[in-house]
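Let us work through a complete example step by step.
Step 1: write down the sequence.
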Amino acid sequence: MIKMFHLIFILLSIVSFVGRVILAQMHSEMLEQKWIKIGPHIVNTLLLITGFVLVFQGEWLSGEYGWIVAKIIALLGYVGLGTVAIKSQGVLRWQAFAGAMACFIYIAIVAVSKQALFFL
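Step 2: predict the structure and record it as tokens.
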């Protein structure tokens, strides 16, 4: 059940991120609406909580957990690049967006494979 909620929050998180980048490009004034500012933070908080619950519920910290550390580092990259993508303009916005999406894809592949260096 927790895994299903986690997957739903992942979907909501990525959709809200892409939507906010599009709004930043086309209608930046809409980003000032309270629900657009607060909503993604609520979703991402619930995403992190369900992620932590899954880690402890699955006892993944008792074995090899380098993949979890890799996901956390990639998550920090995703957040940083996502912030740049929403707040910047022009080519930098789209470079940061591409980087954030690459981080997201990396996190997803690591989550499924449980291998931080799956590409080797």
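Step 3: interpret the result. Helices lie at 2-26, 34-57, 66-87, 90-113.
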